[in-house]
Automatic annotation (TrEMBL):
InterPro entries named in the record: AB_hydrolase_1 (IPR000073), AB_hydrolase_fold (IPR029058), AB_hydrolase_sf (IPR050266)
Keywords associated with the record: Hydrolase
UniProt cross-references to Gene3D superfamilies, sorted A to Z: alpha/beta hydrolase (3.40.50.1820)
PANTHER family, A to Z: MONOACYLGLYCEROL LIPASE (PTHR43798)
Protein name stated in the entry: Alpha/beta hydrolase
Organism: Pseudoalteromonas viridis
Family annotation (Pfam families): Abhydrolase_1
Amino acid sequence: MNKQSAFADINGALLHYELSGTQDGFPLVMIHGGLGSTRDLDVIAEYLSDHFRLISIDLRGQGKSHLGNAALSYAQYQSDIQALLSKLEIFQYALFGFSDGGIVAYRLAAHNPGQVTRLVTLGSSWRLEENDPAIETLQSLTVERWSEMFPEDVAYYNASNPAPDFAALVAAVKTLWLDTSETGYPCNLVTQIKCPTLIMRGDNDFLFSLEEAVALKAQITDASFANIPFASHAAHQELPELVCPAIQQFFLTPGGTN
């Protein structure tokens, strides 16, 4: 799959994005998870590249994107992506987000109902309740622990980011994960999502529970739900042969974007 790598000056930070797929196809924006990069979604892009114009974005401070001076928040990510798409003159698009990327995608779809035509999220929470067991997991995360779990991802970040400081990035992202203010999770904003939506999670996902997924489905007018067996948080990487065809079918279903 051929990729065109590019940068854009957005909200005081130089953001990296990649263009691939069918250049005259309908735009499909792809957003990776926290402490990740565009390459994490390559396995999904392989299934979609023949059908869509793919725009995959490194979130502020991650992958090859500069951090800038703004504090990290889901609202800031949303603002960055809206500004980038406007710069690219993309005003109607389908949207995929994994984990943090899906949380940003909820916000984008809720605030831009006339622009987002279809939405798929994987492992993406929509709120953080006081008793959510994920809080302890998020609070206890350390640079050392993440580096042990994802050594290749950390090595890629250190080698490719223009100003790598992984300890500072982890601290900023942890603050974002625990933000329960209006700049954080979309919460009741999800009721404003009007496009067909597919909510996905791995059956053993320790961050996005089955109960929360079912509650979210009830909040969105036109929502479908897929619980992926034998998988945890990064189900698209663990079982691409199950996850990717489902995503492809949802985006290509008659009445969708094509």
